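In practice, a research group might receive sequence data for several interacting partners and want a quick structural hypothesis before committing to experiments. The following worked case mirrors that situation: the sequences arrive first, and a predicted assembly follows.
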Amino acid sequence: MDWKTLRAAFPRTVPVLMGYLFLGAAYGVLMASAGYPAALAVGMSAAVYAGSMQFAAVPLLAGADPLGAFALTLLVNVRHIFYGVAMLGKYRGAGSWRPYLIFALTDETFAVNSAGQVPPGLDAGRFYGAVSLLNQSYWVLATALGCALGAAARFDTRGISFVMTALFVSIFTGQWLDSPEHRPALAGLGAAAVCLALFGPDSFMLPAMGLIVALLLAMRPWLEGSGGTEKPAAGPLPAGNRPDDPGEEACP
Amino acid sequence: MNGMTLAVAAAVCAGTVLTRFLPFWLLPANKPLPAWAAYLARVLPPAVMGLLVVYCLKDVSFAAAPFGLPELACMALAAALYAWKRNMLLSIALPTAAYMAVLYLL
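A structural hypothesis for the assembly, expressed as tokens:
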């Protein structure tokens, strides 16, 4: 990576910087308050690099169910498939940067790299690489910062795990407001609540995931026929998951 | 931290890498997604976010005082703040601070 490309990429990543600093630090504080070593938190931000799922995995890391964690990861990150489909062309000629570009394709990096033109005179693959690398460096640095903050906290940190609840409620609200079709969201809430009541807090996730997929597949004739599920300008992305403003949805 | 923690971390990592690389592996010729896959990828995100919201409440006791009221009130605050300002920082920081204050005072 050269300075010229990094200098050209940096201004594009500033809105992401703000969001990632806050959420990455919140993740680090949460991991520290849950008693995990900083190496695990920073390692997750480096090797997983998927905000919502990293938050959802905090309680899972204390458990003993890798298979359940894997299944939840697939469901939470299924939206990545849209980003990949949309970036197939742009990332095709990216040369040696290509594997990293695909690995680091978060909501925000997608927003920056799918919308912006590569400045003239610069190699496209390297420019996309600079954007991706800068964004992930903010996320990893913020996580480390949050771990240090969490470890140094002398105040009562009970309830800090509510950052996760507030994050998911915010994303849920955004998706709700952006889409005229609320049945998938209601199916998710309802199926999860029913399974929680039936199976209890420690074993409801797998049945809930199965029920949600089954329900949505059964609802397909109605949901696909209703026509109101996608906004005209949504392109390849689901309504409510279009990161047109990278500073707004600040979660990789 | 034990071996099981690392196994869970590895599973989350593998699942994430899979969802990111899958379209690049399966669609080399710029083909569109199969209709059922496109449908699931469109309707699953809001449903899964509903699941995650319930997941955050799984250990809350609604049968005993304070009946989950601090959680529900702060969640309503987060939803209202996000709907109003569309600012993730605000809708996370303020409700979390409010929730911690409530726990501290109770």
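Before designing any experiment, note the following. Residues 127 and 226 of chain A are 41 Å apart (CA to CA). Confidence is low (pLDDT under 50) at residues 227-250 of chain A.
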